[in-house]
């Protein structure tokens, strides 16, 4: 059975609320077990926007001994499954389950976005046989809200059967941790299924060994071996933050500038703010991590206090040439001044790293 529509919206249940609205190829009737062992049929849907609301469904379920059918859904604009019937008995979503002794069917869904909300589900669960498989190829995001589920659990009536497999490929998977939305491939007497999720990011839901009131990913088995959960992050490259170190020795002389040439018109003093040293002497600092201020200095030695009027004759008035400071003066109020020449020291007593950098002393 194939459906081609620009958009499809399925809403609610029958007027008596005994049957859900939807598309069906199920064996038996939706509200009671049928007889025989015929498999359920298959449904293909090709549409733009697909909405299933308030207990409606697309179902290829088996309600007798037959196999569940297959659902193949392609929605080019997006998919939304929301809500339940007013009494909560029918959940909105996709169903390829087996309510009796048959195996679950398979579901494949591809769309740019998928949203399950307020109890909606995608399920290939079985009562007492192997669970079916679920494949979701969602280009952008999958969102699970308010007790929504994706389930391939087997043996929900404490029966036989291995859990089915769930394969999810998407960019981001979102859930709210406290809303109890689950992705499960559990089993009771059989082996747990396998869940593989390939996504850049998974938020609000995580793997746990058993179901909890939180949003869980589980592949547990009550009496047999648990399944395996595999999380793939295709765009995560641990080498992206690494860079190749130089193999040769570093010439430290290239990182130091020695020719200060006092009195040159090309000399500059640039204040670039706090933050440490620049990478080399010819560039300014561009970092964003400033150094912490050290606070004011309290002078305790009486030898450092006193008048500095003896240096007032070193005025720069009428002197158009700037020279490097030869000393400093500390005033009694804590101020510090740089001076061109200190009367307490000769220029020859100053240790210069480069002989070319000796200052020009101005009388």
UniProtKB/TrEMBL annotation:
Which InterPro entries does the entry link to?
Pectin_lyas_fold, Pectin_lyase_fold/virulence
SUPFAM superfamilies tied to this protein: Pectin lyase-like
Q: What is this protein called?
A: S-layer family protein
Species: Limnospira platensis NIES-46
């Amino acid at each position: 059975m194939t459906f081609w529509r620009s958009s499809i919206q399925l809403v609610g249940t029958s007027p008596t609320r005994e049957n859900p609205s939807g598309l069906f190829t199920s064996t038996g009737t939706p509200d009671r077990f049928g007889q025989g062992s015929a498999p359920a049929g298959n449904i293909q849907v090709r549409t733009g926007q697909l909405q299933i609301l308030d207990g409606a469904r697309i179902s290829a379920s088996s309600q007798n001994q037959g196999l569940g059918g297959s659902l193949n859904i392609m929605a080019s604009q997006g998919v939304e499954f929301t809500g339940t019937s007013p009494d909560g008995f029918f959940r909105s979503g996709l169903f390829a389950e087996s309510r009796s002794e048959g195996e679950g069917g398979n579901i494949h869904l591809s769309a740019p976005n998928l949203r399950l909300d307020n109890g909606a589900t995608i399920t290939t669960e079985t009562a007492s046989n192997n669970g079916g498989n679920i494949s979701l190829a969602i280009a952008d995001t999958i969102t699970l809200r308010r007790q929504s589920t994706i389930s391939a659990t087997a043996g929900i009536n404490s029966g036989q059967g291995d859990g089915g497999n769930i394969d999810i490929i998407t960019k981001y998977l979102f859930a709210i941790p406290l809303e109890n939305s689950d992705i499960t491939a559990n089993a009771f007497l059989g082996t747990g299924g396998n869940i593989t999720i390939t996504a850049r990011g998974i938020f609000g839901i995580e793997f746990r060994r058993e179901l909890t009131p939180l949003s869980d990913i589980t592949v547990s088995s009550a009496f047999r071996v648990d399944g395996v959960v595999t999380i793939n992050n295709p765009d995560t490259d641990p080498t992206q933050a690494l860079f190749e170190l130089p193999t040769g020795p570093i010439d430290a002389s290239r990182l130091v500038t020695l020719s200060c040439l006092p009195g040159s018109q090309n000399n500059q003093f640039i204040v670039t703010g706090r933050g440490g040293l620049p990478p080399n002497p010819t560039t300014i600092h561009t970092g964003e991590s400033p150094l912490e201020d050290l606070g004011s200095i309290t002078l305790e030695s009486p030898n450092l206090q006193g008048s500095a009027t003896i240096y007032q004759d070193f005025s720069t008035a009428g002197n158009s040439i700037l020279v490097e400071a030869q000393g400093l003066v500390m005033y009694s109020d804590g101020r510090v001044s740089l001076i061109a020449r200190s009367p307490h020291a000769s220029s020859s007593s100053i240790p210069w790293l480069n002989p070319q950098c000796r200052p020009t002393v101005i009388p």
